Amino acid sequence: MDQCKNILQKENLSVLDILELNKKIFGNSELDTEKFNQRHRAYNETAIKQILDYQSKNKCNNTELAKYFKLSRNTVTRWKKLFIDKK
Q1: What does the alpha-carbon distance between residue 87 and residue 82 come to, in Å, rounded to a whole number?
Q2: 3-state secondary structure 12-69
């Protein structure tokens, strides 16, 4: 519960904070529910950049990152083209 308090005390919650809270509160869900929820997720630019930063800090490849955040490898590749190639 202390971990949830730390997140909730933040002034602004990011999309990743909400996903982490959801995982801590509800735990792992059934496979069908998980697939349904994944189809309806939306990420803003800030969340995408945080995910890509996570990849560089933890030295993950696209497959590992996709598995960790339950994304498609194609999505990760597309995000990298959009946001990393921009710089």
Answers
A1: 9
A2: CCCHHHHHHHHHHHHCCCCHHHHHHHHHCCCCCHHHHHHHHHHHHHHCCCHHHHHHHH
Q: How far apart are CA 63 and CA 27, in angstroms?
A: 23
**pTM for this structure?**
0.64
Taking the C-alpha atoms of residue 58 and residue 66, their distance in angstroms, rounded to an integer, is 13
The rounded distance, in Å, linking the Cα atoms of 47 and 33 is 22
Q: What's the pLDDT tens digit per position in 25-82?
A: 877 666 666 666 666 678 889 889 999 999 999 999 999 999 888 888 999 999 999 9
How far, in Å, CA of 31 to CA of 17, rounded?
Answer: 22
